[in-house]
Design a protein that fits this description.
The complex is a heterooctamer, with 2 copies of chain A, 2 copies of chain B, 2 copies of chain C and 2 copies of chain D. By secondary structure, chain A is α/β, with parallel strands linked by helices. Chain A contains 6 helices and 6 strands; from the N terminus they run E-H-E-E-E-H-E-E-H-H-H-H. Chain A has a single domain, classed as Pyruvate-ferredoxin oxidoreductase, PFOR, domain III (Pyruvate-ferredoxin Oxidoreductase, domain 3). Chain A has a 6-stranded mixed β-sheet, with helices on both faces. Chain B is α/β, with parallel strands linked by helices. In chain B, helix 7 links the parallel strand 6 and strand 7. The longest helix of chain B has 21 residues. Chain C is of the alpha/beta class. In chain C, strands 3-2-4-5-7-6-8 form a 7-stranded mixed β-sheet, with helices on both faces. The chains are: A alpha/beta, B alpha/beta, C alpha/beta, D alpha+beta. Chains in contact: A-B, A-C, A-D, B-C, B-E, B-F, C-D, C-E, C-F, E-F, E-H, F-G, F-H, G-H. Chains B and E meet through helix 4, helix 5, strand 5, helix 6 and helix 9 of B and helix 4, helix 5, helix 6, helix 9 and helix 12 of E. Bound molecules: thiamine diphosphate (2 copies), iron/sulfur cluster (SF4) (6 copies) and magnesium ion (2 copies). One iron/sulfur cluster binds next to helix 1 of chain D.
């Protein structure tokens, strides 16, 4: 098994963290993993993205060229990475702020109004969690349990009160693709 | 763990207790990790006012007998060149990390391998060398750092970790192995305050008389020769029966491995020699490969730097080709494969 | 109806990449309006730093440079010496001007270089994600002072305006803050005075602006404005530190 | 009478204008999102605006044009 | 005239009106001459606070459209590496002079040629090149400086004068020839203040997107290829019937000439190829010489730097030997002769 | 008969390479005697600069470094952090400390680095044969200001003691002069105070010594002493600029 | 009684001690040259010396040892 | 004709100027010349020296290995360069401060008490002129006239009053070898 993901959006939308959570969950499940951002977060605005590989064999190149899935949190990400999804792969779009539709017909496209849902939950920062819920559920690369372990670790003690919110957002995303 | 964090933690595991650095993407997790961890282990993390100051603080701390590290990325490493040259001449051990980004100039913060020349030929002035490790995974980055401290102390030659931005930013699992200690000569040359029981320390790089300076250079050369003989490291991948030998280091080598596998599926007998130390460079191994291989390909994230060392090693025996992308682009297995197919057709 | 406020023509149409609520944008506006109001658009040359304002060269609709980290005053010197009649300014963060570029700013002042430094003091390294700056406050947590800045380990915040005012070549130095509209208006007056002093050939001029960095301070923009006012101004008193008459 | 023209796509929803408006007529949208994913600023009651330009001076992103 | 003075005066003759530098032996006569002469010709001499500031002032003045020069010696040139990389990326023309002293470290102030790698492979970070002239006499130093200004403006690539300390300190007669002007493209990219009649200047070296940065690197590469094709310069000395080809540059080449003459007296057919530009390097000429010559010898004041370029050019066709002294020592004709005799015996 | 004066045991037997009448030698003596008198010979670490004092590492009979030009404060920082209980001092010229090393000295002060800088201000670059220093006086002729230093072109002399005194981390700063025996005695007291403040952990300390350079001033040693007194002291007033009590 | 011991080979003939000696008993030799080519300092009348050490404190080159 | 000289002594003794005057005189006499110091005068004390070549043909290497003449103004210079004099060459020693005697028997040795003579003329700075007078007269490489043109040029207007003193010192040196 090898699963390659690209998670992309504006800097600040949490696309890197999204990828890290998948990576961490993979590690928990004793898989070989790699996570590689397209850049360190030196710049805001612009498009940030990361390449995630979860695999039963040791990871060769950490660079994703034929993605099993792409998560696009904003318009420019869709423009840039739609073509990278391999035929039969999955494309997750944050339809709240991406106006364009996907053009590819040979892939599964999921339009998730993630930003709107996040705002409904009262915190636009969990947009990525909605997307993550949808992605994990639709692909089953890792389990929700593993993801939650990661979320708890990343939030730490000082932000433990946010765990529930994150889970709610995750579940909302999950529900949309079930 | 992120590559940068693994590098920082490995240094601590290797006994490094002093770190002087200045922020620059994409290596910030190194100083940040150090800022967190050093107080915990009784060490000192200090953010210097600049890269120039940082490398000279390294000079000071190393001269005082400590294990010390600094890290930066391309433009910052350029600023350290004078200091590195001083450290090399004064024969002070230390570890310098370059998490390469794209250049020249401010360039971009995406990964590159375009500081190869600077690292292995000497970016600073004068005849000197660094021991240069080029890890290809987070695990290897950690291993190299530990070894770098040991080798640097042993030879009194500064060591450089030359990693592309991907190694620094990537997350992979890492296991910290116990350090392989060498029998180290005592640091009796260090400045610690002198009670008269040993000759006083004179940490220095000025030798105004030609005879003296020349002797110093020759002394360094002897050490470098020893290092070349003993410290060269590389990995061979599917080289047993390879017709085409690819040479690549760092993350690029991982992409090349994918390409080699695909090539094999297509019946092309490709193999990889991956330098782990780029200075000393595994020239001998490559030279030996000329006996069996029909062609060589250097793959780099640059406009062509390591390829010169491959050419020098092959020395005209077989054709040497070059595949490179730069500016933050990353080569794809497909690009490499295409080149291999072209060669195969030509053969 | 007449337009009473619109974007200065010294600002291009490229949207700022700054974080929401980052006062870098306000500083840009002030500088641009001063250039416009002094009628110097065609004669202005700006030097962007390395820092969050690295793309300032895209935002000011005048001839611009992007300089190496900390070296804007040296670049400005080169430019000004070639075009002494032009208005030359640098725009630099606290990491850029007060840390790596400390020698360059001190010597631009010492030479009485006829340039203006717009000094954005946000007590942190914004662009590289929140490391300690020389201006970071005692106790302030940053990614490289995770337990809060400890003066025993790494000293106290440096006050550049006070320091540079001791130098003979400096002609106008003022510290302002961008935390509310009244102070923003003052800041604009300061920039105009500095530009005028430059054009009058009086010497080196600088306006230090206290700025926020909500992202790396870990606050909302509104919280950051409050923090700035409460915590930065006591450490960095506002006012004119040097004004050469003649 | 004054008019505040808002470029919603330019707004980053920081709320700085909100705190400086003497008339308290600026609020962040609770329903809308612009293409950048921010809730943009809105005027609740334009007739109260006195064209003081505080919002415009505080806004880091040139969202406002103000007429009088 | 002293070499340093000739270099300074040649720059003025070439229209250089801005000089930014920082004192360092053995090049001080360059800034000192500039300090005297610039006010006389309406130019500006400014002593910068450091080499780092000086190179960035050059960035500023060149970006403003001026002909500008800076000079230093080895340690100071190391400090300029970041700035040089920026200038290369921003494609700003300028002339940089390195009057090499011995290194590494503070080293000595005696002449050396140990900054060759730094000069031709890129001491700074990223993929860039400088046009590097290596004069062998005071007269040639003056000529090279003039040409450097023209070539640098023409290609928008910084030029470096790589002279050993002897060239700088030596006195020889010099005649300033009228400059050979090239048809220069207008400097419409320069920052001068913008009245709206042309696109505004954006002197810059940051390109955050890989595609853009990669395009910039490729653009530079194209220019470098052009330079390599058009600007390579060398001198041949007694190469017509040479069996042994020596390659040497700068003052070393003059010593080699003496050795060649002595060798001829002893019946050894030696000849010399002297690179005048060391980048671009006269590789083609050397490759051609492999057809006739039986062996090659690189002679340098270093532990072996240019010899790599000779090896790359010879590409294994014939043996390449190396004679080098370093640390401020100067090779003697006798040393070279001995090597020639050894080769002759071996042949 | 008792010996009332002899060479300090902190000075080696290597003859100084300084020019006849150069006060660098006096400064060496003062520093050595203070180390000896404080009983710190076995705990002292000195950092020589690049400048005429480049060979100071040969002259002080203690553990010594030779640092890169201007970087002695950074080297001292590295050494002091490793050996916090030692007496660490730099010995730097005005080119070294005030020009190329301006950032390093400012930040050593800002960090409150517990080191002492012995700052030799001779208003010129001695070692490289007489170029202008940042401390060169207005009108003073040097090889790079052949018509005399012109403030319009290259500014006025920088006063480092005054400047560094504005920085919180500095604990003791005094300017002294070596032009006569009385002032030499004062200079020695200043060095001892600075060393003591360092050892008490108070912060950064510096003693600026006005020195001569007969060779590059183009004077006899005796003339140079007179010139120093007449011309340098008015521009660089003597005195204590910072003294932190506690 | 005081004694001034002079290391003539160390002297560089700068004359600084000469100007600070309160007793004016130090003069540069008019006949001698040391190995470095300098005219070294000499004491004209040792009996006048008061061992004030001014010469030693002013001398940059440790030429003097003073006894009392 | 090719004549190679090494002029050596302490920094500050004027050995470099001595060499420059010979070079300049050679140029005036339309010869090919080169002058090369062993280092720029960054350091005082220690031994400074310069290599001078005056030749009827273009100068090849500016480095002097077999010297026609060596001028040693101090002890260390004698130690260092005595062996460099070619057989039959000339060695000029400043015997005022050089205690040792020359060892070579196959060369002409001139012991010139130059420092003493200079002091007698009231200015130790003309030590080099005494040596120069001896050297030029003994070797006839260039003429005194050419040297004097050089001296005038180097002294310039501000120090024109020193021309006579320099000439006197030169002549004194000349007299000793005539
Ligand atoms: C030589 C060099 N060192 C370090 C960096 C990395 N770097 C980029 S911006 C920056 C500091 C930014 O802080 P500041 O100047 O305060 O500006 P801000 O982002 O806060 O506006 C640093 C260290 C660099 N680009 N070049
Ligand atoms: C990086 C670098 N730049 C320049 C030099 C040349 N240099 C040597 S000493 C010196 C200045 C000496 O002046 P100062 O510091 O005032 O000391 P002084 O000789 O006057 O005591 C310079 C510029 C150098 N060695 N290294
Ligand atoms: S990181 Fe801070 S300084 Fe930079 S744009 Fe964001 S808020 Fe502004
Ligand atoms: S112009 Fe004044 S009153 Fe009107 S919206 Fe803006 S801040 Fe409020
Ligand atoms: S200040 Fe500007 S960016 Fe911020 S909320 Fe108001 S309009 Fe939007
Ligand atoms: S050059 Fe000046 S500072 Fe240097 S030793 Fe001579 S007199 Fe002293
Ligand atoms: S000790 Fe005093 S009196 Fe005696 S020689 Fe020295 S200065 Fe003169
Ligand atoms: S001060 Fe010292 S060196 Fe100078 S003349 Fe007197 S004894 Fe001699
Ligand atoms: Mg900042
Ligand atoms: Mg000085």
């Amino acid at each position: 098994m090898i699963n390659k993901l690209i998670s992309a959006g504006f800097g600040g939308q949490g696309v890197l963290l999204l990828g890290q959570l998948v990576t961490y969950a993979g590690m928990i499940e004793d898989k070989h993993v790699s996570w590689m951002p397209s850049y360190g977060p030196e710049m805001r605005g612009g498009t940030a993205n990361c390449n995630v590989i979860v695999s039963s064999d040791p990871v060769g190149s950490p660079v994703v060229t034929n993605a099993d899935a792409v998560i696009a949190l904003n318009g420019p990400s869709l423009d840039k990475f739609e073509k990278t999804v391999k035929p039969g792969g999955k494309l997750f779009i944050n339809s709240s702020i991406v106006e364009k539709k996907a053009k590819r017909k040979d892939i599964d496209v999921y339009n998730i109004p993630a930003s709107e849902m996040a705002i409904k939950f009262g915190n636009s920062k969990v947009t990525n969690m909605v997307m993550l819920g949808a992605y994990v559920t639709a692909t089953a690369v890792v389990t929700k349990d593993s993801i939650m372990i990661g979320i708890k670790k990343f939030l730490g003690k000082s932000k433990a009160h946010l765990i529930a919110l994150n889970e709610k957002a995750f579940d909302a995303g999950a529900k949309l693709v079930r | 763990m992120k590559g940068n964090e693994a590098i920082a933690e490995a240094a601590i595991k290797a006994g490094c207790r002093y770190f002087f650095g200045y922020p620059i993407t994409p290596q910030n997790q190194i100083p940040e990790h150090m800022a967190k961890r050093m107080p915990e282990v009784g060490g000192t993390f200090l953010q210097a006012e600049s890269e120039v100051a940082a490398i000279n603080m390294v000079y000071g701390a190393s001269g005082a007998g400590a294990r010390v590290m600094t890290s930066s990325s391309s433009p910052g490493i350029s600023l350290k060149q004078e200091g590195i040259s001083y450290i090399a001449c004064a024969m002070l051990p230390c570890v310098i990390v370059n998490i390469m980004r794209s250049g020249p100039g401010l360039g971009g913060i995406l990964p590159a391998q375009a500081d190869y020349f600077q690292a292995v030929k000497g970016g600073g002035h004068g005849d000197y060398r660094l021991i240069v490790y080029a890890p290809a995974s987070v695990q290897e980055a950690a291993d190299c750092v530990m070894e770098a401290f040991e080798a640097s102390d042993y030879y009194r030659v500064p060591a450089l970790i030359l990693a592309d931005g991907m190694i620094g930013q990537m997350m992979e699992p890492v296991e910290f192995k116990p350090i392989t200690k060498r029998k180290q000569p005592p640091k009796d040359w260090a400045a610690t305050g002198n009670d008269g029981t040993k000759p006083r320390a004179q940490i220095n790089s000025i030798h105004i008389e030609a005879e003296k300076m020349s002797a110093v250079c020759k002394g360094l050369q002897c050490v470098y020769d020893k290092i070349a003989a003993k410290e060269t490291q590389y990995e061979e991948f599917m080289m047993d029966d390879a017709d085409i030998c690819i040479v690549a280091y760092g993350t690029t080598s991982r992409i090349v491995k994918n390409a080699v596998k695909k090539a094999r599926e297509l019946g092309i007998k490709a193999g990889l020699i991956r330098p782990i130390t780029v200075w000393p460079f595994p020239s001998e191994m490559i030279a030996k490969a000329t006996e069996k291989c029909k062609a060589f390909v250097a793959v780099e994230m640059s406009t062509g730097q390591m390829v010169e060392d491959v050419r020098l090693a092959v020395n005209g025996a077989k054709p040497v080709l070059f595949v490179g992308v730069t500016g933050g682009m990353v080569p794809t297995p497909e690009m490499v494969l295409e080149e291999l197919q072209d060669i195969e057709e030509g053969m | 109806m007449a337009v009473v406020f619109k974007k200065s023509n010294v600002i291009t149409d490229v949207p700022f990449h700054y974080c929401p609520g980052c006062t870098h944008g306000i500083a840009h506006r002030i500088v641009a309006e001063c250039i416009e109001e002094l009628g110097m658009k065609e004669k202005a040359i700006g030097i962007a730093p390395v820092g969050c304002a690295v793309f300032a060269y895209k935002y000011f609709d005048i001839d611009m440079y992007e300089a190496a980290h900390g070296r804007a005053p040296a670049v400005a010197t080169g430019a000004k010496r070639v075009h002494p009649e032009n208005l030359v300014f640098t725009y630099q963060g606290d990491g850029d001007l007060a840390s790596i570029g400390a020698a360059e700013i001190v010597h631009a002042a010492a030479r009485g270089e006829k340039i203006t430094a717009i000094f954005i003091n946000n007590a942190i390294y914004g662009m590289t994600n929140g490391q300690m700056a020389p201006t970071t406050l005692i106790g302030q947590k940053t990614t490289t002072s995770p337990l809060g800045r400890d003066p025993e380990l790494c000293g106290s915040p440096i006050r550049m305006s006070e320091m540079l005012a001791t130098i003979d070549g400096s002609a106008y130095i003022e510290r302002v803050s961008l935390h509310d509209v009244r102070h923003i208006n003052k800041a604009k007056k300061a920039v105009k005075k500095a530009f005028e002093a430059q054009l009058a050939g009086k010497g080196f001029t600088m306006v230090e602006m206290l700025n926020n960095c909500p992202t790396n301070w870990g606050m909302t923009p509104v919280e950051s404005i409050e923090w700035m006012k409460e915590n930065m101004i006591p450490v960095f008193p506002l006012g004119v530190y040097k004004e050469v008459q003649e | 009478m004054a008019r505040v023209i808002i470029d919603k796509e330019a707004c980053k929803g920081c709320g700085l204008c909100e705190i400086v408006c003497p008339k308290k007529i600026l609020v962040l949208s609770e329903s809308e999102l612009n293409k950048k994913g921010y809730s943009p600023i809105e005027v609740t009651d334009m007739s109260l605006c006195n064209a003081c330009c505080s919002c415009a001076k505080m806004c880091p992103d040139f969202v406002f044009v103000i007429e009088k």
